Amino acid sequence: MGRSGKRSERPADLISVLPEDLLLQILEHLGSARAAAGTSLLSRRWRGLWTRLPSLTLSLHDLPFGSIQTALHRAARPGVYIYHLNIRVAGQAGMIGSGSFSSLLLNAASLSPVELRLALPRNLQVSCMDVTLPSFHRATSMDLRARALHLTVFAKPHAVSNGCYVPFRSLERLSLSGCHIDLATFIPFCPRLRVLQVNTTGLIDMGNIAIHSASLEELVVEHGNRWTRRAHVSVDSPVLKQLTASFHACGNIGVSILAPMLDKVWWRCSYAKPIYGLGLWGLSEVGFNTDAGRGACVQLPSVHVLSLHISPVQDSVSFPNADLSFAAEIDKHMVTNFSGLDLHLSTKGHMFGTFVLHLLGMHRIHTALRNLKIVLLRSEVKDACPVNCLCDEPKNWRTETITLADLENMEIEGIGGEDHEFDFLKVIFGCAPVLKRVTVKLSDGVTPSVDWCTKVNNIFMAYPSVECNADLVSRAKAVR
Predict the structure, then answer these.
(1) Strand partners for 289
(2) Tell me, what DSSP letter sits at residue 460?
């Protein structure tokens, strides 16, 4: 009685008596082979049960390169048909031979994983010889991170042409960072690819990026290098919906984007020095992004906005074929239709009217423009425009007429109260027949004079159908 009484006091193990298939589901939800193996300590019922898992997540974090190869050799187990590999090599300075790294990839491919994550530390580099990327025919997701890793894909020309050799036929998501690979050759091996992320920072010899895919829906490209030679970005994807791209350019860059279903865009191209411009104004950055409109209670349709950063250049700089090359350079970055223009002008004391009107007169801009925002950037030290400066040439810009038939909204931020700014306002009012709203904001540190307020009010009163707003309080001096 005493012994049976003691047994009755022990808590019942209701989990261990469950059917084996349910126990295996519990182990599978633990998320890693190490955690599953640890359950062998619970009781005899759990001992070795993890080795019969049909799905195994193998996380090899911060292990020496050689230890990872050994672990991959031991990972193969009968009955396991779904592998998730997460490999992160320990930080160790040095060089790995391309043969050794190829062997690691082959060991990983032999497990036919459905997911592969492989990261090498930045201070560990694979020799510059090409490494053949083996077939991962069951992988739906791959993430490879390295430093200047040169990859090639083993291809059988006859098999490819017959459609029977597709080494990455299940791949849906791919992320490559620091991996040099011919994307034009590689992408056709991924017929189901939906998401592609490419970071070519540090790859000075990967200037041409060609991505042609019939299935791709989202693309992210980041190139942090300053290209020193001609580069080209080519994207042809009929179902692409999201595009994120960032570039730095020192020379000419070719852009070709064919994506009729493109909806969400974030695009930036920065120039190391102004190589395109008009007069004394040089182009320093071109952007293109999607602005999700929001009303008080409803979600408004998204609009695409072209963003230009412009600043004066030194007198010694000249732009050959300025009109054509400047317009062509901006045009190539218009990856889809747009209706907004954000213009950031670093004025340095110069008049901007003649340049901005020339810009707004460009065909693809004035025919599409509905929303215009101009941000005037001024230095803390007030710059003086020299006598007979080219910024005011030709002087007849104040009577110029351009057609802004669809312009509805305009905002100018950073007004300093100078006469040429009022002249510019008058020209825009006269060129935009359907203008609905105009907002002007004073520059930081500027206090409006009575004369300033009178001039603004007179301009606004001349156009009663336009909703006009003037922010007369300098933000730098505003108090609550």
Answers:
(1) 266, 305
(2) H
